[in-house]
Amino acid sequence: MRFLIVGCGRVGSALAKLLDADGHEVIVVDENPNAFKRLGQKFCGHMVVGTGIDSEVLKNAGAESADGFVAVTDGDNRNIMAALIAQRIFDIKRIVARIYDPPRGQMYRELGVETVCPTTVGAKLIRDRLVDAPWNGLQPFDFGRLTALSATVGNEAAGRRVCEIESRGRIRIGAIRRGPGKAVVATDDAVLERGDEVQAVVSPDAISDFAKFFKEATRSEVPA
Q1: What is the dihedral of CA 114, 149, 73, 62, to 10 degrees?
Q2: CATH class in words for 2-119
């Protein structure tokens, strides 16, 4: 797949290298040629000097055939403008813009532009660490959009089916571990038992909903 990234800062360069290592075609756009040094010598993608809010620059960077577009400059306005150009001029289907101001992020999501707000995501993750959230092995991935969680089933979730806890596009339980060596892929009709350990993928806005089912969970480890 072809991905176009506007902004070669810490996040943009890290994302570019991840996608490049996965075998995708990656084009990175930045106004500062020196920013491309962050990509390193092993980066096999393309680098374009220019601004992401110039449609001609994006066109020359291959926006017309891009499968995905990411705007991660250090300015909210530039990220949103670049995302709207990608959406409305080049009709790119997968677009993500980083926005630091939560209210603005919500507003643009309502306009069809997917946004990631490090302010909100970071605050929620720190809160859950402070209040002793009922899961182990917190591991963010996909540059902060999703979180992989492991939780032990207590009274709140015991007896419930997996489909009662899952939420389409927000909470997905992938596996259940019931005692040593008894890990299975979760099915919709699987009934959870107290002491089970579940592995789930949760969107940032659904972490609190997920926690409600496991508020009585313990942190005890289940041997592999």
Answers
A1: -60
A2: alpha beta
The edge-to-edge listing of strands for the beta sheet with 114-116 is 46-49, 25-30, 2-6, 68-71, 94-98, 114-116
DSSP letter at 145? T
CATH assignment, 129-213: 3.30.70.1450
Helices (H) and strands (E) in the chain, counts: 7, 11
Q: Are 145 and 204 in contact (CB under 8 A)?
A: yes
Banded pLDDT at 66 (limits 50, 70, 90)? very high
The torsion defined by the Cα of 210, 215, 219 and 220, in degrees rounded to 10, comes to: -110
Q: What is the structure's pLDDT at 222?
A: 28
Residue ranges covered by each domain of the chain: 2-119, 129-213
What is the separation of C-alpha 215 from the centre of its chain, rounded to a whole number of angstroms? 24
pLDDT value at 61 more than 60: yes
| pTM, 2 dp | 0.59
Q: How far is CA 93 from CA 34, 68, 84, 86, 90, in A?
A: 30, 7, 11, 9, 9
The rounded distance, in Å, linking the Cα atoms of 133 and 110 is: 30
What type of residue is 88? R
Assigned token pair, 108: 């643009």
Q: Strand 197-202's sheet: what is its strand order? A: 135-141, 146-152, 197-202, 171-177, 183-185
